[in-house]
Every structure is written in C-alpha cells, then in structure tokens.
Fold this protein.
Amino acid sequence: MKKFTKAAAFVLLAASVSSCATVFGGPVNDYQKTKPLAGQPQREVRAGALIADIVLFWPGAVIDFATGAIYKPQPTTPSPATQSPGQQTGK
C-alpha cells in the first residue's frame, strides 16, 4: 500500500507540472490553433516548453500540441502606417 501511495503521489506531481506551454505560455490565439494551409509558413515550436514537457512528463507535450499552446504566437510585423518616415521603402 505504501508503494501505491508513493506512485500515486509521483503521478499527481508529474501531472501537475505537465503541459508547460499550456500552463505558462499565456493565452492561445487563433494563429496558434489553426493549422497552416499549403504554401503558408509553418508555425514555430517553443523549444523550451517542448523540452520541459519531454523531461518532466511526456504526455504534457501531447496536450500542448492538441491545444496549440506549444506554438509561438504570431510574429508581429510593423504596418506601413507605424513606420517612421526614414524607414519607408519603395520611393
């Protein structure tokens, strides 16, 4: 019975720190949830969260991929309206 209690405590502890990107990655947006279409660039994976998932509790990686939390948020590019006059191109 003592071995079962220790094993149950270990599983509970491992499950509580699993899914590192889901727990610590912040809100998941549509870019992370949506699979890219053909011809679109692939989403980048958060390497630190993936390594933590594999080392701590590998089923957490499955949860992170299923929720899309393992992917980095969409990179922001400055729009032409927000560029300073010295940065404008094409003229």
Q: What stands out?
A: The longest helix spans residues 2-16.
